[in-house]
Amino acid sequence: MGRAVTVATCALNQWALDFEGNLERIFRSIDIAKSKGARYRLGPELEICGYGCSDHYYESDTLLHSFQVLEKLLESPVTQDIICDVGMPVLHRNVRYNCRVIFLNKKILLIRPKIALANAGNYRELRWFTPWSKARYAVHQILLPEVDVLVFSQETVPFGDAVLATKDTCLGAEMCEELWTPNSPHIEMGLDGVEVFTNSSGSHHVLRKAHTRVDLVNSATAKNGGIYILANQKGCDGDRLYYDGCAMISMNGATVAQGSQFSLDDVEVLVATLDLEDVRSYRAEISSRNLAASKVNPYPRVKVNFALSCPDDVAVPTCVPIQWRYHSPEEEISLGPACWLWDYLRRSKQAGFLLPLSGGIDSSATACIVYSMCHQVCLAVKNGNAEVLADARRIVQDETYIPEDPRELCKRVFTTCYMASENSSQDTCNRAKLLAEQIGSYHINLNIDAAVKAIVGIFSIVTGRTPRFSVYGGSSRESLALQNVQARVRMVLAYLFAQLTLWARGMPGGLLVLGSANVDESLRGYLTKYDCSSADINPIGGISKTDLKNFIQYCIENFQLTALRSIMSAPPTAELEPLVDGQVAQTDEADMGMTYAELSVYGKLRKIAKAGPYSMFCKLITMWKEICTPREVASKVKHFFRMYSVNRHKMTTLTPSYHAENYSPDDNRFDLRPFLYNTTWSWQFRCIDKQVNAL
């Protein structure tokens, strides 16, 4: 037999329950893999139905349609003479499993159920699936659905924890979470002689996460030798997550092929030719590995009369190690949310976005992400992406349109709106206008004072009392209520203009409203419920203020958006209280009683470090010992937890946000907490006080 194996992996932009579109993208990836000489093709986790089906996994329809798609794959000539490895849910003895279905020439070779299910953070696989608990055991009794028997020419297939033995090598499958577990299957499989490991993933983007995934893949073969192939989903498949591709192939601890992390290409295929003898010679000198291999319990092997190599392949060139190219966090913010927005826009079939642009850092960062999206669209069209071109033409309702200039595309799909009040400064108005000019958005200036006065007037007529701001002698309750009226009027106007702006301009379609509350403000609850933080989607809702400032600097340097300089230097402000001598007197950090830098620390300790009030205090007296006394730390921790718990109810209505941070307070699925707290935290705070007194 030959020694040079050619394998393919891919990143596919699948969409939950889009069986027709998912099938087309799977077909395309197989076709590309075959055209490049691959003899094995790996796809993402649950690629047939789409990873994000959630409670639709309970439905028999999802199982039925998945098998119907599998039937189409099996009977197509496209899938002949290549081992295809696809993902789908399978029902076995009334239990649902997350499975790989591996087939060759109309015959299913193995159905391999997932052993370790992802069940933390955004993942809830144990809600829908059961892990396969019989290690190194496969049954041969699974009956195929009646719909498939005619196509398959087989009524039963191997089902369980087994590996494939081809004529020239041995392949073993892992699935996503199994790579991240302490005792990953590839360890024992490698000791049992498996040379090619595969991993089908549904792994989403988090800032600074890529290096962890790459390190795990490379380390999987560094100690044990072997070839590791990873496929991943990409894009927005229907919720808050963006799956960030990064398909890769590694051998003996080194990357040999790298896929893109952010791209508008729906189908990306990586192919590599690798020498099996390199694996065997690498393993030969690791005596500790060979001693362990002599004692390993063997895996069931499914024999396959097929080879991944070709005879007489001595002169076939093989791939060499490469250096992985990582994006900076600022590049990740520029690209990830931009690709997510594009998927959301084209799949929602809307005509563009509307953003209330205040002239502050958060809304400006959101505007820059939309501008980056326009850059990515123009670049994709320039590179010949016909699908992006077709989507762009449909969105702008022009069959001859070719997007070439990001500013011109921005004008068509992006409306920004500065909503002034008597409390707004001319500075923020000018900043918003200048930024809109530089990115090319269709910009609207309007004043909300008439609406605010009308609403407050109704209250005054009914009650006979007129609330006043504190600077005019009113109470804090009056002042806060007057601020909230302004904020909520802006939300109502944002939706009105989103629905009718294009109509007023004689253009078809409606606009999606973008929110721009960052992750730190959501954590603290520094937002008005049902204000402009309430929108259709929020591309920065999972990003910290610190990272957004760095991103703004990145946009100044890379997009030449000089308007951002004055935005960067201005103190963040809500501009909801009266001006003093024409100048802004209200600032966010003064209102919150804490800095954005402190908020990021609180957020990471609360969520990632799992710290309650007492544990957070104990950690911070060490972290901040150079700048705060224990009593000052206690005061800060108490203030944070009071404000966090008082405002937690706001998270239940939080706009769906791009997930980018592991300390996100998103109440939908990621950060599950009560929203009615005892905000005195009496027992917890008493423990802190006792420790302060002891110190």
TrEMBL record:
- Tell me which GO cellular component terms the UniProt record holds: cytosol
Keyword list (alphabetical) reads: ATP-binding, Ligase, NAD, Nucleotide-binding
Q: Does the keyword NAD apply?
A: yes
**Presence of the UniProt keyword DNA damage in the record:** no
Q: What's the Enzyme Commission number for this chain?
A: 6.3.5.1
Q: What does the record list as GO biological process?
A: 'de novo' NAD+ biosynthetic process from L-tryptophan
InterPro entries for the chain: C-N_Hydrolase, C-N_Hydrolase_sf, Gln-dep_NAD_synthase, NAD/GMP_synthase, NAD_synthase, Rossmann-like_a/b/a_fold
**CN hydrolase domain location:** 5-276
Query: Which pathway does this chain act in?
Result: Cofactor biosynthesis; NAD(+) biosynthesis; NAD(+) from deamido-NAD(+) (L-Gln route): step 1/1
Q: GO MF annotations for this entry?
A: ATP binding; glutaminase activity; NAD+ synthase (glutamine-hydrolyzing) activity
Q: What domain of life does the UniProt record list for this protein's source?
A: Eukaryota
Pfam families for the chain: CN_hydrolase (PF00795), NAD_synthase (PF02540)
Q: Which family does it belong to?
A: In the C-terminal section; belongs to the NAD synthetase family.
Q: Which PANTHER family match?
A: GLUTAMINE-DEPENDENT NAD(+) SYNTHETASE, NH 3 /GLUTAMINE-DEPENDENT NAD + SYNTHETASE
Subunit field text: Homohexamer.
**The protein, known as:** Glutamine-dependent NAD(+) synthetase
| Lineage, top ranks | Eukaryota, Metazoa, Chordata, Craniata, Vertebrata
